[in-house]
Amino acid sequence: MVQHQSEEILNISFEREGFSNIPRNIIPTLKSILMTPRNFFSQMHINKGFIFPSVFYIIISLFNICVTSLAIRFGIADNPFNAIAAQFKETVTDQEIYENLISMIKPFITQSPSDFPVIGYIFKAFFINIVVFALFVSVWHLLLSVSKVSRNGFQASFRILAYSSAPLILGVLPFPFINLVILSWIFIIVGRGIEEAHEVFPNQAFLGTLMLPITALILVLISGFVF
Fold first, then answer.
1. pTM to 2 decimals?
2. What is the pLDDT of residues 177-198, one digit of tens each?
3. Measured distance CA(149)–CA(55) in Å, rounded
């Protein structure tokens, strides 16, 4: 735990140098988050707003979505919606529930890669990503507050989670177990972020990272209830 949030800190360059320099700063920012997360979060102000971390998350999210959609379109990657539809057919016995689930992904179930609706997928996936992120960070921060890990408020939690999305950019790599690597990396980065931005001890930061899968489970249960 480092008591570091003072006015003398210049803040991270991604925010300090403004919107016009985002293209120049995005790669160094990614490198800093991925390789030296403790140093990154020790320099990050906890109360400089939601705009820049939101822009960062949007860049990472759009990059991932666009590359994934093009990979499906050109047959480089399998269409996951076809596999999901097949799984629904095997496991969902109630016809009404099955039809409701299929209707949600029907536009993206294709016979050949060339039929995949790239533009439609990008818009829908981006919208869903933003909604899910907003819900996720809200529930996660609530759990942090209940467990007395969140010392510096919702804005700090939001900024931690938004910048911790950096490993998602690796999701486009066609390597085995890449999702496991990404999730593990995110856990490590979030832990460092909690420790620095919320100014807590390592054991409290570890507790905060454990709230990530609990948050995901809560959202899955809520979605199951709603849909």
1. 0.87
2. 888 999 999 999 999 999 999 9
3. 26
**CA 110/CA 82 separation, integer angstroms:** 7
- Residue 128: Cβ-neighbour burial (10 angstroms; 0-12, 13-18, 19+): exposed
Radius of gyration of the chain from its Cα atoms, rounded to whole angstroms: 19
**Nearest Cα residue to 64 out of 166, 184, 189, 188:** 166
Buried b (16+ CB within 10 A) or exposed e, 150-165: bbbeebbbbbbbbbbb
Could you give the angle at which helices 202-226 and 118-146 cross, rounded to 10 degrees?
Answer: 130
